[in-house]
Amino acid sequence: MPNSLPVNASTAMSRVVYIVDDDELVRGALGSLLRSIDLEVCAFGSTEDFLAAPKAPGPSCLVLDVRLRGESGLAFQKSLVDNGRTHMPIIFITGHGDIAMTVKAMKAGAMDFLAKPFRDQDMIDAVIAALDSDAKRLDAERSLHDLRTCWEALTAREREVVQHVAAGLMNKQIAAEMGIAEITAKIHRGQAMRKMNSRSVAELVRKMEALGVLQAAH
Fold first, then answer.
1. Does the pLDDT at position 9 exceed 50?
2. Cis status of the peptide bond prior to 117, with omega within 30 of 0
C-alpha cells in the first residue's frame, strides 16, 4: 500500500520526494536518507500507486527505479511525456544501467541517472538540484498566473492602447489611430501601466511577450 502524504505536505513550501521502487529495502533506505535532511518522503512499490496518490502543491521530484515489475521506469517516463505530464523532475536509479539507457532517459527529460550502489551524497545532490529546478518552475508559473490576472483586469480600450504603446506610438499618435482625445489616450495608458505593474514601456513589452499577447501590435 502507498504511504499517505504527510500532514504538512499540503503547504506550498513543502519539498516532497516521491520514490517508486519495488524493493522495500531500497524504499526504506532512500526514505531514511532523504528524511535525514528534512525532506518529506512518499514511497511507493509501483507506478500505479504513485499515480493514484495525491500530490503536494510545492516543489517535488520523483526517484524512479528503471527496472520495476510490470511497466519499466523508462516506459513509465515515456507515458508521462506522451500524456504531457512532464513537470515533475525524475531521477532514475538502477542496478543495471548502461550508456544507451542513460542517454534515452536524459533525452526524455530525466534530471539525473544514478547507478547502484550510489553514494548518499550523490543522491542528496541530485534530489536537491531537482527540487530547486521544480521550485523555479513553480515560481515561473505563479508569475505568469499573476501577469495573466493583471492583463484580464484591463478594459478592451486599455488593451488596445497598450498594443499601440508596445508598437512605439506616442500618446498623440495613439489618439489619432483610435479616434479619441490625446488626454483620453494618456489616461488609458496610465491606468493600463498601473494595472500591469509596469514602470516602463520596456517592462510592459516584456510582460506582454511573456503572455503572448503582442500579435496584434503593428
1. no
2. yes
Q: How many domains does the chain have?
A: 2
DSSP H helices, the chain, are: 24-35, 47-52, 73-82, 99-107, 120-152, 156-166, 171-178, 182-195, 201-211
Distances (CA, A) of 154 to 123, 163, 200: 47, 12, 17
**Average model confidence (pLDDT) for the chain?**
86
The pLDDT value given to residue 68: 81
Q: Are residues 120 and 179 in the same domain?
A: no
The tens digit of pLDDT for each residue in 177-218 reads 999 999 999 999 999 999 999 999 999 999 999 999 985 544
**CATH number for position 40:** 3.40.50.2300
Between CA 10 and CA 56 the distance in angstroms is 5
Q: Are 39 and 17 in contact (CB under 8 A)?
A: yes
- The string of DSSP letters for 7-62 reads GGGGSTT--EEEEE-S-HHHHHHHHHHHHTTT-EEEEESSHHHHHHS---SS-EEE
Is the Cβ–Cβ distance between 115 and 95 less than 8 Å?
yes
18 and 113 co-located in one domain: yes
Query: Greatest CA span in the chain, whole angstroms?
Result: 75
Q: Is residue 147 part of a domain?
A: no
- Give the three-class secondary structure for 203: helix
Q: Distance of alpha carbon 90 from its chain centroid, rounded?
A: 13
